Amino acid sequence: MKLKENKAKSLIETAINELIVSIEKGQSEVLTNYLQAMGRFHHYSFTNIMLISRQFPNATRVAGFQTWKKLDRFVIKGEKGIKIIAPMISKKESLKDKNEEDEVYGFRIVNVFDIRQTKGTELPEISTVKGDPTEYSERLNQLIADQKIELLYASNVPADGYSTGGCIVIRTGLSPAEDFSVRIHELAHEMLHQSNKEKLSTEQKETEAEAVAFVVCDAIGLDTNSACRDYIQMYTGDKEMLLKSFERIQKTSSEILYKIKSITHKIES
User: Fold this and answer.
1) For residue range 125-179, what is the model confidence (pLDDT) as tens digits?
2) Rounded Cα gap, residues 188 and 261, in angstroms
3) What gap in Å lies between CA 258 and CA 264, rounded to an integer?
4) Positive or negative, the Cα torsion across 22, 26, 29, 32?
5) 104 and which of 28, 48, 87, 248 could share a cystine (Cβ 3.0–4.6 Å)?
């Protein structure tokens, strides 16, 4: 059992080190692929998103061999699996307490495959927006309201928008796509930084919020911006800081996407 865990840890460490090297070399396309993967696979863990992005940068829909089989699709002979980490779960012997959760006692490596590595029955297309966030706009406003955050519009805003802890103010006159992106950016500040006791620079806070906006907007089909290049410029060699920042970005963008997307994915991790 220890051997399986060691292999899983080694796989993760290799992926992290390769990501660090890519950032240090200024390879923005690697980071772009990673942030886009956050949007496509927001139901996966931070670690597994990184592993999928590293091994199959253009993956769009992944599932295990048996899951594809249930969907009447079959892995093409010779295709190499994408290795991710899965928990090893110990089922409770007693069912007396239905609220008692199963225990995770370790992790192992499993293979998943992208849809392009399979053939068979066509799956329903996932609809996306092309520069128009109307479908998601009201849901985003509802999410902001659910967070007990007031949303206001004003013409004399010094920037496109700002947040003050419990209140988001957006400049009037923005295009629908810009308005949506700024709302995501400011909501990210509210979720990430208002109650975060960790000392972060203004630059890092802005970059994290912009990265969340990048992930969410890209995931629903909106044009994205230069968040990746900004993030590379921000990296100063602190590996722990970078990984914590990525975890914050992934968790926040995943929560936002989960709550504003109406599509129910048939393929789950």
Assistant:
1) 543 334 678 889 999 999 999 999 999 999 877 678 888 889 999 989 888 988 9
2) 17
3) 10
4) positive
5) 87
